[in-house]
Structures are given as C-alpha cells and as structure tokens.
Fold this sequence. Notes:
Blueprint: E1 2-6, H1 13-26, E2 31-35, H2 37-42, E3 51-54, H3 59-66, H4 69-79, E4 83-87, H5 89-94, E5 95-100, E6 108-111, E7 117-123, E8 143-145, E9 150-152, E10 160-161, E11 169-175, E12 181-189, E13 192-197, H6 205-208, H7 215-223, H8 225-238
Parallel strand pairs: 1-2, 1-3, 3-4, 4-13, 5-7
Antiparallel strand pairs: 5-6, 7-10, 8-9, 8-11, 11-12, 12-13
Amino acid sequence: MNILIYADEGVSTFSLQETLATFKALIPQATIEPITHEWVAKGKWQEHTTLFIMPGGRDIPYDRRLKGRGVENLKQFVHEGGKFLGICAGAYFAAKEVIFEKGTKLEVHETRDLHFFPGSAIGTLFQFRPFDYGSESGAHAPLIKLQDETLPFYYNGGCYFAEAHDHPVKVIGTYADHDNKAAIISCEVGKGKALLSGVHFEVRPSALFKENTPPEVCFPLAESEKRRQNFLQTILKELNF
C-alpha cells in the first residue's frame, strides 16, 4: 500500500511532520513517501498509489505549482478510484472556490480546479484569535460535533464548507461553537473519494507543547488524545482502509 504526501512549496513543515508521524503510526504496513509538484505532473505514480495527502500550509503555491497537468493527474487518480485527503490548506485547494481572510491583507478569493468539493471553502472562523502565518496566534481548539460525540481538534486558519448540506457530500463533523458549519466532509468523486478537513485531526498534542501553542489549546487536546486516536480509525474507515 502506497501513500503519497505532498511536500513542496507552500506545505507547512509542522503539518508535514505531523502528517508523516500520524500515518506511519496509523498504517505501519504502508509505504509513505513525500512527492513534489514535478512528480505529480509527470504521472506514473497513480497506479501504485492508494492515498494522496495534501497537508496544511498555503493554498496559493499548491495552485500555482500544480495547475494544469498536476491537477489533471490528481483528478484522474481520484475519479478512477483513488483516495484524496486534504487538510486545512489541502482542503481549501480541493474546493471549487477559496475565500480566505476576506477584507484583510491576507485575502484570497479565487477559484480552484480540482472541484472535489463543488462549493466554497471559507475561513478563517475565529476572529478572537487573529490568524498569522508562521505563528500560533490563530491557534484554537474548537469543539467538533461528530456522530456520537463532541471532540476538540487543533485549528489554525482552517475553513468551513459553505452550504455543504446542499451538495452531494457526507458531513462527518461540524463546528459546534460556530453555527454547526461543516468542518470535515467526505466527497464521492467518480469511483474514488476525497475527504476534506478544516481542522488538523492529524496533529498530536505532544507536538503542540513544543510549538509555543497556548496552553488553553494544548490542554483540552491532550485530555482528549485517546478519543482523537479513536477518531483516526473513523477516518481510515471512511477512506475504505
């Protein structure tokens, strides 16, 4: 089983680190490899790959680097039965439209080409924690309402999926403290599937204590770590592992 993780311009070093650590522990039998935009565009990886992961970071470099052949290869991969996981910036990138920090100097309002979610990914959500690239000032631990429980996850600049209930997608989790907007969704794409998340369910609380993340974020996540681990099994099941 091969899992590819995008590791090119725009990807957050921290998000990449946590994605690698989490999936190596979660699926130890898998071969997990980083991949650059050149290799995505070149192709020939699709037939040997089960899951393609786009971690958090900055969505604009993803778009600029992959536009054209890279995006077409990703779309073909999923439509023909592959699985795609987009987290934070990776989720923005997989939506039809990105609306980020509207009205600020960080504003991004552009369309994207993957269209795994046929609507808008909009963020950020928590104005009392202003987002800033490269810092933890926007970090938060919002409560995400799942099917059978409510669980905090690490959040830093993520999105919600506008009017998700009006689209043919499965809503896995909602922001319980933000009008139950869709936070984690699963989209059927041809024969494949794209799972998109505005929150970082891959992040380990133990890693956040080393990142100068505020204690009011770290401690609720640490206290619910066992339940986060259980939720990761739900993610695997949703991706048909």
